[in-house]
């Protein structure tokens, strides 16, 4: 059962084509768009301000997304937020990525098709230009991204869009087996990897 809570009369919204793992928590003014993915143990707290996940975006396991009253927290179309990242009152523009355990602070803007590297700390108000690779704590622009870099990021996002559909179609709570089956199946590449 989903952990979804209204606050001050505002209830989260989940598009029927989105997948939100049952252990995720959504509070208040949270809007999950078409084909979006919210992973296990993610926390999206719209108790201070609005959080918007646009079409095809993903927030992976143990991420924290918190809205602020001053501005919406937005993950634009095809936005990609890696395991354990924290977004606080910021904007990820279309096709942007925030790596694992990175932090993006209030009123920062991650430009279109940019990548914030794992463990980076993006300070409040930082404006990251489009197609930038951002690293470090505090974060700085290291270089511009190549077409191959952007294509690689987009491929990873498509894997999560496919995962959204796989979860909606096949994920179910079950009892564990006592031992592996003799002919135990494996996930096939075509189930995981979208066409390039």
UniProtKB/TrEMBL annotation:
InterPro entries linked to this entry: Transf_Hexapept/Carb_Anhydrase (IPR050484), Trimer_LpxA-like_sf (IPR011004)
Basic and acidic residues bias (residue ranges): 178-189
Q: Which portions of the sequence form the region Disordered? A: 176-196
PANTHER family named among the record's database cross-references: DYNACTIN SUBUNIT P25, GAMMA CARBONIC ANHYDRASE-LIKE 1, MITOCHONDRIAL-RELATED
Listed name of the protein: Phenylacetic acid degradation protein PaaY
């Amino acid at each position: 059962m989903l952990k979804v809570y209204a606050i001050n009369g505002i209830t989260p919204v989940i598009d029927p084509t989105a997948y939100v793992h049952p252990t995720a928590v959504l509070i208040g003014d949270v809007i999950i768009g078409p084909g979006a993915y919210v992973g296990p143990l993610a926390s999206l707290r719209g108790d201070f301000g609005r959080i918007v996940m646009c079409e095809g975006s993903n927030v992976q396991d143990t991420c924290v997304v918190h809205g602020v009253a001053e501005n919406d927290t937005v993950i634009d179309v095809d936005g990609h937020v890696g395991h354990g990242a924290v977004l606080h009152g910021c904007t990820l523009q279309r096709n942007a990525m925030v790596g694992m355990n990175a932090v993006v602070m209030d009123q920062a803007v991650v430009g279109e098709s940019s990548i914030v590297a794992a463990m980076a700390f993006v300070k409040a108000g930082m404006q990251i230009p489009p197609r930038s690779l951002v690293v470090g704590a505090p974060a700085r622009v290291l270089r511009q991204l190549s077409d191959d870099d952007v294509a690689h990021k987009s491929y990873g996002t498509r894997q999560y869009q496919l995962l959204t559909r796989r979860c909606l179609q096949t994920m179910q709570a079950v009892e564990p087996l006592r031992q592996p089956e003799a002919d135990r199946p494996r996930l096939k590449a075509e189930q995981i990897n979208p066409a390039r």
